[in-house]
Amino acid sequence: MQINFWAVLAASVIPLIMGFVWYHPKIFGTIWMKEAGLSEDKMKGQMVGVFVFSVILSLLIAYFLQFVVVHQMGALGMIGGDEMNANESYHAFMKDYGMAYRSFGHGSLHSFMTGFMFVFPVIAINAMFERKSWKYTMINAGYWTLTITIMGGIICGWYAVDGFHWMTQK
Concatenated DSSP letters for the chain? Predict the structure, then answer.
């Protein structure tokens, strides 16, 4: 299955955009800094490296999310990932279900569930061992859950708009 790199790239900038809004001092930024034990002086400095590495890590998250939100990728995995040598049943399946559940809403739903049932527990476990507050946990988990919800919606919705040209190829 072809990977839609434009959708992945577009989704990978969402964490920066959401972070700018979510962690703004007038939203959760001031509370987050207090709960994290940070000061404005500590936050100052070379941020270029932080932003560059954040985009690279966001690309990994977006790349992974397509496997969560585009169910047809699982069908390709079942045949070993080689669609050019796939059997007739795979092509029949893709002809019948190739565009099923391809919408922003569907991608958002699955990404939200991933955020709530995977990201939130991971952040909460780390925060408990770091002795961070529940405010800190909820601010970070809320940010990541909302962020990947939007990312998954973009990835799944973009597939719906772009379509799969490979579905008709055998």
Answer: ----HHHHHHHHTHHHHHHHHHTSIIIIIHHHHHHHT--HHHH-S--HHHHHHHHHHHHHHHHHHHHHH-THHHHHHHTTS-GGG--HHHHHHHHHHTTTT-SHHHHHHHHHHHIIIIIHHHHHHHHHHTT--HHHHHHHHHHHHHHHHHHHHHHHHHHHHH--GGGG--
Q: How confident is the model over 121-169, as pLDDT tens digits?
A: 999 999 999 999 999 999 999 999 999 999 999 999 886 555 444 333 3
Are the CB atoms for 63 and 4 separated by under 8 Å?
Answer: no
pTM: predicted TM-score of the whole model, two decimal places:
0.84
Rg (CA), the chain: 19
Confidence of residue 47 (pLDDT cuts 50, 70, 90): confident
Whether the Cβ atoms of residue 144 and residue 119 lie closer than 8 Å to each other: yes
